[in-house]
């Protein structure tokens, strides 16, 4: 390894920024040289800039500006842009996050160039290859050199796919680190007042292609969310994907429905913290509601985050069952089944990941036991 090795973080979409912030901070604390490459997959100020500000992320050393497009066009632009920047910067390790197209492209480029990679949030599986994210997860984990798992179920998924356990480190969840850091700033009152919401309200986020791309699915979902809004006022910070389709299906502001632009990280989580109920199809929001103890109904047939059901407040629902599930969740309140957060969701995942990376850069033995990181939870 060179003196003063360089770590690059490839980030592109909203959830990447949230997961990377604690890792970047952890590496900075250890004095590791690093830089962020922003692919530009998300580019609206409310999908990107606001996260850099809220999470205290340093300015990217490059923004590839790839923007939107079909999977093929977007991934192709990502491959070309990332190859150039990796060749120019010659990093010693590239860290990728989650399951978005920027993650997939970065792992492919580095595998072809022979540049080592680490994947944060390895091993999550919905076992639904109809989700673009599931394809990205499987390919990314097959090619990564170091894999950081956020929950114990990930370890068996990776073992079943033939990933060498010596490459896998169970480190906890950096998205939860970000939430821990933000907690003192999370105040629902000013956001609620600004939006003119009553004290009891629900929050909904919707952006999965399976829910919002097809007009029929969008209509079914919107009807269900409207039915919830007749029980409790609903505010929807709406992701740009599907905005038009959902509006055509009837998701418009009204007496008990408030449709707004996406919110910044601190404002969004403030609103979630004060909510009686969250309805979502997001991955990250399932985890954040588990930590905040807010009931969460996930409108999907499956989840790659089952720990949010076994250890948290999350339930999977179909659109048809959403109104009744909302009624029950509102009556029951927020008790978590086990009363405990998932293992290692303690706000210290970023420093654990940073320690493993720093040792790896020094060429130390990579076995999880040697890093003081528990490999298998009981
Ligand atoms: C992507 C990820 C998804 C993740 C989500 C987080 C993939 C395949 N999907 O989905 O896993 O859950 O990010 O939010 O990588 N758009 C804007 N402004 C932006 C960004 C997007 O208007 O700043 C619109 C464009 O019309 C674009 C659409 O949103 O076509 C979809 O964006 P894209 O990044 O392709 O996928 P997401 O649905 O955001
Ligand atoms: N989020 C946000 N503002 C919003 C909606 C979500 O800051 O209006 C945050 C949320 O708290 C979480 C992340 O964005 O940290 C999740 O991103 P998203 O749901 O877009 O992606 P997914 O997790 O489904 O991949």
Automatic annotation (TrEMBL):
It comes from the Bacteria. Residues 32-357 form the UDP-N-acetylglucosamine 2-epimerase domain. Keywords: Isomerase. Its EC number is 5.1.3.14. One of its GO terms (molecular function) is UDP-N-acetylglucosamine 2-epimerase activity. Gene3D superfamilies: Glycogen Phosphorylase B. InterPro entries: UDP_GlcNAc_Epimerase_2_dom (IPR003331), WecB-like (IPR029767). The keyword Isomerase applies. CDD domains: GTB_UDP-GlcNAc_2-Epimerase (cd03786). PANTHER family: UDP-N-ACETYLGLUCOSAMINE 2-EPIMERASE. NCBIfam families: wecB. Belongs to the UDP-N-acetylglucosamine 2-epimerase family. This is UDP-N-acetylglucosamine 2-epimerase (Non-hydrolyzing).
């Amino acid at each position: 390894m060179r003196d003063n090795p360089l770590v690059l973080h490839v980030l592109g979409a909203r959830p990447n920024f949230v997961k990377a912030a604690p890792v970047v901070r952890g590496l900075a604390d250890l004095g590791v040289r690093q830089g962020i490459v922003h692919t530009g997959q998300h580019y609206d100020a409310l999908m990107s800039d606001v996260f850099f500000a809220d999470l205290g992320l340093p300015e990217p050393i490059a923004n590839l500006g790839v923007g939107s497009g079909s999977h093929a066009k977007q991934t192709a632009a990502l491959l070309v842009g990332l190859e150039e920047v990796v060749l120019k910067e010659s990093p010693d390790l590239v860290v990728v996050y989650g399951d978005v197209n920027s993650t997939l492209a970065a792992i492919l480029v580095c595998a072809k160039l022979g540049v080592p990679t680490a994947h944060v949030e390895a091993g999550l599986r919905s076992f639904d290859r109809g989700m673009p994210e599931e394809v990205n997860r499987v390919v990314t984990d097959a090619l990564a050199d170091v894999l950081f798992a956020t929950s114990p179920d990930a370890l068996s998924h990776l073992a079943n796919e033939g990933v060498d356990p010596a490459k896998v480190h169970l480190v906890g969840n950096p998205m939860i680190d970000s939430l821990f850091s933000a907690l003192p700033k999370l105040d629902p009152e000013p956001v609620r007042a600004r939006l003119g919401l009553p004290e009891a309200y629900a929050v909904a986020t919707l952006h999965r292609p399976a829910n919002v791309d097809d007009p029929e699915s969008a209509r079914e979902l919107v009807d269900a969310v409207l039915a919830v809004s007749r029980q409790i006022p609903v505010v929807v910070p709406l992701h740009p994907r599907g905005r038009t389709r959902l509006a055509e299906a009837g998701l418009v502001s009204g007496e008990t429905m408030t449709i707004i632009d996406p919110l910044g990280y601190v404002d969004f989580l403030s609103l979630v913290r004060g909510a009686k109920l969250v309805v979502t199809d997001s991955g990250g929001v399932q985890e954040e509601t588990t930590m905040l103890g807010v009931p969460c109904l996930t409108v999907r047939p499956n989840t790659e985050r089952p720990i949010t059901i076994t250890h948290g407040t999350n339930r999977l629902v179909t659109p048809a069952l959403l109104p009744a599930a909302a009624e029950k969740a509102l009556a029951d309140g927020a008790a978590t089944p086990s009363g405990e957060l998932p293992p290692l969701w303690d706000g210290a995942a970023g420093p654990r990941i940073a320690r493993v990376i720093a040792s790896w850069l020094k060429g130390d033995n990579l076995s999880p036991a040697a890093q003081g990181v528990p490999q298998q939870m009981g």
